[in-house]
TrEMBL record, chain A:
Main localisation: membrane
Superkingdom of the source species: Bacteria
Transmembrane residue ranges: 24-41, 136-157, 169-187, 199-223
Classification of source organism: Bacteria, Bacillati, Actinomycetota, Actinomycetes, Kitasatosporales
InterPro entries: Brnchd-chn_aa_trnsp_permease
Family from the record: Belongs to the AzlC family.
Sorted UniProt keywords: Cell membrane, Membrane, Transmembrane, Transmembrane helix, Transport
Protein name as it appears in the record: AzlC family ABC transporter permease
Topological type in the membrane: Multi-pass membrane protein
A GO biological process held by the record: L-valine transmembrane transport
Pfam family, one: AzlC
Cellular component per GO, a single term: plasma membrane
Automatic annotation (TrEMBL), chain B:
Keywords: Membrane, Transmembrane, Transmembrane helix
Domain of life of the native organism: Bacteria
Keyword Transmembrane helix listed: yes
Protein name, UniProt field: AzlD domain-containing protein
Transmembrane segments: 6-25, 37-55, 67-97
Length: 246, 102
């Protein structure tokens, strides 16, 4: 991936709009369809059709939705279940942090764009070389995903009984495959690979001992940890010439 | 009723953190360290989520058919397959391994 710190406003259009739209539709359609798995899982966890659809419409961040219905199905206290889902959703704040620089949206538009600030829209947007591409990628991924995710959630909830055991259909592998496909293009340098490796160790190692959702948050600390280690080794900040403000 | 409370709290909380990220003043992001950190955080989170959703069964770590499915997805990625093919590979291989009793 190109240097993350510099995105030209205009020009450098080595990627046509159609290619951006194609990328966005690819992600939007694939992940949007996996809402089916959520609808099935949620209905199987004992949530009503209305509750299942409300989650996809209002929460709209898949990992949190899966975490919430899983915790509720296990008989968890509603606030504990919500806390786990919330912790998983906290990562979207970091995506928003990144996206707000690249999208440069007017303040009045941000409350409307916010609901689409999730893994997939961020990954597509970040992969684009220009601001125009970032905006197109974010918007097309967002609308495609929102419409399809909610539609397939409804269908999944309706079809849950017909399908029977969703794991037998391999649908539980769709989630990690999606995350892996989003992650792969980001692993360009040693810094990113070291971060990913450390995050995997933390995420898996802490899973048995911390409440659901918390290990992922701790794993996020791999990012500052690797940056700190790299900074120590190179004896200071480097890599972004001309950007030090003071 | 309890479920609606959980849904409401989750919806409000998740929307709030999404919006928070977009509303943080641009001045706070001008520092190179913050920029690099914001770029690197999704890498850490996606890696941890991938690993957990591949190996986690509640609070336990297990190796089951999902591992074969995600490995198939990884191969598809190396072969530069389109996104849908990558996900389909994971689902089909996982279902196949389960069908074979894996």
């Amino acid at each position: 991936m190109r240097e993350q710190t510099a995105v030209p406003d205009t020009g450098a259009g080595d990627k046509p709009d159609a290619a951006v739209v194609r990328d966005a539709l690819g992600v939007g359609v694939a992940v949007g369809l996996s809402g089916f798995a959520f609808g099935v899982t949620s209905a199987g966890s004992g949530l009503t059709l209305l509750q299942t659809c409300a989650l996809s419409l209002l929460v709209f961040t898949g990992a949190s939705q899966f975490a919430l219905v899983g915790a509720l199905a296990a008989g968890g206290n509603p606030l504990t279940a919500a806390a786990g889902a919330f912790f998983l959703g906290v990562r979207n704040a970091f995506y928003g942090l990144r996206l707000s620089q690249l999208l440069a949206l007017p303040r009045a538009v941000r409350p409307f764009a916010a609901q689409w600030v999730i893994d997939e829209t961020t990954a597509v947007a970040l992969a684009q070389p220009t601001r125009r591409g970032v905006r197109i990628g974010f918007a097309v991924t967002g609308v495609t995903l929102y419409v399809l995710w909610n539609l397939t959630t409804l269908l999944g909830a309706l079809g849950a009984e017909a399908l029977g055991d969703t794991d037998a259909w391999g649908l539980d592998a769709a989630g990690p495959a999606v995350f892996l496909a989003l992650l792969a293009p980001m692993l360009k340098t040693t810094t990113e690979r070291a971060t990913a490796a450390l995050a995997v160790l933390l995420g898996l190692g802490l899973l048995p001992v911390l409440p659901a959702g918390v290990p992922v948050l701790v794993a996020a600390l791999a990012a500052p940890a690797v940056l700190w280690a790299r900074g120590r080794r190179s004896g200071g900040t480097s890599g972004t010439p001309g950007e030090e403000p003071r | 009723m309890n479920i609606w409370i959980a849904i409401g709290v989750t919806a409000v909380g998740c929307y709030a953190v999404k919006l928070l990220g977009l509303l943080v003043p641009a001045g706070a992001l001008e520092r190179p360290l913050v920029k690099r950190l914001a770029a690197l955080l999704p890498v850490a989170l996606l890696a941890a989520l991938t690993a957990q959703q591949t190996f986690a069964d509640g609070h336990a770590l297990v190796v089951d058919a999902r591992v074969a499915g995600v490995a198939a997805a990884a191969v598809a990625l190396v072969l530069r397959a389109p996104f849908l093919v990558v996900v389909a590979a994971a689902v089909v291989v996982t279902a196949g391994v389960r069908a074979l009793g894996g």
